[in-house]
Amino acid sequence: MSVVDRELAAESADADLSQDHESAETVPESAEDQDSEQHSQGVPHESGKLGNLVPKALEFVPPRHRWRSLLVAFLRLLFLTRSAPKLPASLAAVVAAIWAVVAGLILSLLVAVVAQVEQPITVAPWLWLAGHHMGFSTSNGVVTLLPLGLMLVCLLPLHRAGRFASRQFGEQTQAPVLLGLMTYVMGVAAVTLLWGSGQFSLVTAFVAGVICALVAGWWGWRRETGRTARSPILKGARWALAVPLVLGVLVIMVGLVASWDAVVSVQSTVAVTTGEQVGLVLLQLAFLPNLVVWAGSYALGSGIAIGNETISPFADSAPAIPDLPILQILPTQSPDWTAMLPILVAFGAAMAAMRVQRMQPIHELSRRLIRALLLSGLIGVSWFVLSRLAGGSLGTEQLNYLGPSFGSAALAAVVCLAGTVIWALLPTIASDAKPVAIDLRDRVARKRDPNDVDPAINDDRVDPHA
After folding, report:
1. CA distances from 199 to 122, 195, 401 (A)
2. Is 210 in the same domain as 346?
3. Are residues 359 and 427 in the same domain?
């Protein structure tokens, strides 16, 4: 082959290679244009189920945006918001339980800092354990009179954890709930062993942790799912139970106005520095729900037990009141109008029964009496639980018990039973009395009309011309 032939062959080979390279570059562009045109016309992508998500998933995300998205997801999970990332059910249960423990300890630490106590880091776990309403041992005895307001440091985090769990679990509930409950109880037991082993019982901590987690978690779960109590009997018992509590608030307000000077005097005597004043005010605010239940027991007529003595509307003696400013508002000298409070409680129970009747009407007397017994029984049980939570001992012989009287639950059931039985019998009494009322009305109408003569009298009248 000559030199000219070899040069011509090389030029043709180079031309073929350049043409193949240009065709290879134009094929992806045309395919990309075809895909974009199909997407604009609504034609599905050839990649199957993923569709056009495949190119987006393969897009390059800058590290700054990636860290920002991770930080946002972490903050949402940190506060258990609605937009928190979806987790597996078991992991979500553990996260919710640990969050409830940590959040409760942080709230207790804030309370200790605001109250200006010494060593707040050491006091915070003790406050959190006491918030589960666990009695603790002292040199004088076991203290079981604990403020109901302090229970918020453990109930509020558990309520939020329950709402978070209801969004995360879905249909799987039994196993995750048990796992979360066990995790929370283990957290309570660990805090008890680390900070309260000398004062709090481990068995009591286990029982209190289970009860608080179940009650507050169930409350949050119901609130998140929008499920409320639909039973008319439960609603009626709740309304009837609110009557003595409202009357208790009224008694507290009247006592606060009447005994304001005594409250200020005891406050200035017990607490001298600003820190002591702030701590004492917070302590009294935490005990305020207890005092409402106490005053409700006073409105029922059973009274308030102070050691071995009782304050009630029907008691003449005035027991010695402990040196706590908020206790000075208790009505040691009962006015005359307080004797009417049990009647108002019975009237409130009758009104609650009427509201239940509107929601679920029944007409048979036997069923109305059964409903009255159910309402009274629920009120008695509920008041027993409230009185046990609100009362307790301060560990001394003189103050072995402070709170609602031991017979307040039974008296609440009896007073409410009286009101509900009157409601149950009222329709029957009205129906039986209706003919008598009609007859009395006719007789009164005849006496007012002199021209109206009784036909029975005309039949007995004798004709003199016969």
Report:
1. 14, 9, 20
2. no
3. yes
What distance lies between CA 179 and its chain's CA centroid? 23
Res 194 pLDDT > 70: yes
Residue that finishes a domain, picked among 189, 206, 228: 228
Contact present, 152 and 131 (Cβ < 8 Å): yes
pLDDT at 42: 42
Residue in 179, 175, 182 with CA at minimum distance from that of residue 210: 182
What global pTM score does this model have? Answer: 0.78
C-beta of residue 209 within 8 angstroms of C-beta of residue 189: yes
pLDDT in the model for residue 62: 65
- For residues 305 and 216, state if they share a domain: no
**Same-domain pairing of 163 and 245:** no
Residue that is written with structure tokens 């048979």 in the block: 364
Tokens 């997407």, residue located:
39
Q: Are residues 266 and 298 in the same domain?
A: yes
Residue 188: count other Cβ atoms within 10 Å of its Cβ. Answer: 28
Q: How many domains does the chain have?
A: 2
Domain residues for 392?
A: 235-458
What is the 3-state secondary structure of the chain?
CCHHHHHHHHHHHHHHHHHHHHHHHHHHHHHHHHHHHHHHCCCCCCCHHHCCHHHHHCCCCCHHHHHHHHHHHHHHHHCCCCCCCCCCHHHHHHHHHHHHHHHHHHHHHHHHHHCCCCCHHHHHHHHHHHCCCCCEECCCCEECCCCHHHHHHHHHHHHHHHHHHHHHHCCCCHHHHHHHHHHHHHHHHHHHHHHCCCCCCHHHHHHHHHHHHHHHHHHHHHHHHCCCCCCHHHHHHHHHHHHHHHHHHHHHHHHHHHCHHHHHHHHHHHCCCHHHHHHHHHHHHHHHHHHHHHHHHHHHCCCEEECCEEECCCCCCCCCCCCCHHHHHCCCCCCHHHHHHHHHHHHHHHHHHHHHHHHCCCCCHHHHHHHHHHHHHHHHHHHHHHHHHHCECCCCCCCCCEEECCCHHHHHHHHHHHHHHHHHHHHHHHHHHHHHHHHHHHHHHHHHCCCCCCHHHHHHCCCCCC
Token digits of residue 409: 């639950």
Same domain (yes/no): 247, 209: no
Give the pLDDT confidence of 100-121 residue by residue, as tens digits: 999 999 999 999 999 888 889 9
239 and 224, same domain (yes or no):
no
Q: Which two tokens mark 164?
A: 């978070």
